[in-house]
Amino acid sequence: MSEDAGPRGIVDRLLAANAIAVYVFLYAPIVLLVIFSFNDNNNVSIWTEPSLRWYGEMFRNDQVMGALQNSLLVALVATAVSTVLGTALAISLERYRYRGRGTLDGLAYLPIIIPDVTMAVMLLVFFFQAFGILDSLTGIRLTAGLHTIILAHIAFNISFVAVVVRARIAQFDDALEEAAADLYATRWQTFRKVTLPLIAPGVAGGALLALTLSLDDVVVTQFVSGAGSTTLPVYVFGLVRRGVTPLINAVSVVMLVASMVLVAVSLGLQRSAAGRQKVLTEPSLVYERTT
Predict the structure, then answer these.
(1) Residues 6+ apart with CB under 8 A from 111
(2) CA 102, chain centre distance (Å)
(3) In 3-state terms, the chain is what percent helix, strand and coil (to 5)?
(4) Is 115 left (phi over 0), alpha (psi -120 to 50) or beta?
(5) Which helix (H) or strand (E) holds 85?
(6) In this structure, are residues 232 and 64 in contact, taking their beta carbons and an 8 Å threshold?
(7) Which pLDDT tens digits describe the chain residue by residue (291 residues)?
(8) CATH homologous superfamily for 61-288?
(9) What are phi and psi of 39, to 5 degrees?
(10) Are 262 and 90 in contact (CB under 8 A)?
(11) Bridge partners, residue 50, by sequence
(12) How many whole angstroms separate alpha carbon 31 and alpha carbon 41?
């Protein structure tokens, strides 16, 4: 026993040191970003004294606030639509068998696999051709703007939502739906009172993932955006190209906090749903919910 304690102790210490090094590598830049966002100096790399100056500048900057409003609008609309469509796609692929299902299953993963720049170019060409056809047929001239950004975000978010929801459906016990049918529940009652509550954590997780991806997207948005439709990540990217300022630090910290809040909400929903799942799977509760 004592012979194994030495090597095992060394391995444990090495693994602990490796974990610490990884966490330092990942989070040290974030800590520095947060600290220097409170720097009063105009130079991003020289610390003088703590101040909320750049947060005030951020909230007083009309361009930043306009970009933030565009980001929230695009993210909320794209998330709502892609969550509904992605959930329907996940249920279709996981629960039903039909001709062409295999092809549709493969196509559903394309937005996840292909590079962002390829997706952006495809959407740009699609919108250009679609607007040209619409103009020639109806005389209506459309240009790129928030509507094209929303459609583009829906296009790539559907796949991410479908993957998350599908993983949840794969763990679903089909006997629960059969029990509801035996109790004379309609298909809509079964879905609303049995299926949906049990896959709700997956739906919520997919929605939060879509919201995060939409808020953080730069490449696709930059290709399909038009005048007056700049989102916050694209605006920050433009500032970086002109030179790093403490204003970028403040904006980045706000985006970081928003992402952390979304992750915390997702974890909270998953934990609360895990506690309810055991209760929902009781046969007596299935009877009560479907009658």
Answers:
(1) 119, 155, 156, 158, 159, 160
(2) 26
(3) 80, 0, 20
(4) beta
(5) helix 62-95
(6) yes
(7) 455 555 677 888 888 899 999 999 988 988 888 888 888 888 777 788 888 888 888 888 888 888 889 999 999 999 999 999 999 999 888 887 888 888 888 888 888 888 889 999 999 999 888 888 888 888 888 888 889 999 999 999 999 999 988 888 887 777 777 788 778 777 888 888 888 888 888 888 889 889 888 988 889 999 998 888 889 888 888 877 776 677 888 888 888 888 788 777 777 766 666 665 555 555 555 455 555
(8) MetI-like (1.10.3720.10)
(9) -80, 135
(10) no
(11) 39
(12) 18
User: In whole angstroms, what is the distance from residue 210 CA to residue 203 CA?
Assistant: 10
The residues, any chain, with a CB within 8 Å of residue 210's CB and separated by 6 or more, are 78, 79, 82, 83, 86, 153, 157, 160, 161
List Cβ neighbours of 65 (8 Å cut-off, separation of 6 or more): 59
Residue 168 in contact with residue 87, Cβ under 8 Å?
Answer: no
Distance CA 53, CA 37 (A): 9
Tokens of 179: 């029990």
- CA 75 to mean position of chain CA atoms: 9
Question: Burial level of 126, CB count in 10 A (0-12/13-18/19+)?
Answer: middle
> What's the one-letter identity of residue 252?
S
Task: Give the integer Cα–Cα distance in Å for 225 and 150.
Answer: 10
The residue to which tokens 């007056």 are assigned: 228
C-alpha angle with apex 172: 171 to 175, nearest 5 degrees? 135
Written as one letter, the residue type at 94 is: E
Token pair of 47 as six digits: 């610390």
Phi, psi (rounded to 5 degrees) for 272: -65, -35
Tokens 């005030």 correspond to what residue?
56
Model confidence pTM above 0.90: no
Three-class SS of residue 236? Answer: helix
For the chain, helix (H) and strand (E) counts, in that order, are: 14, 0
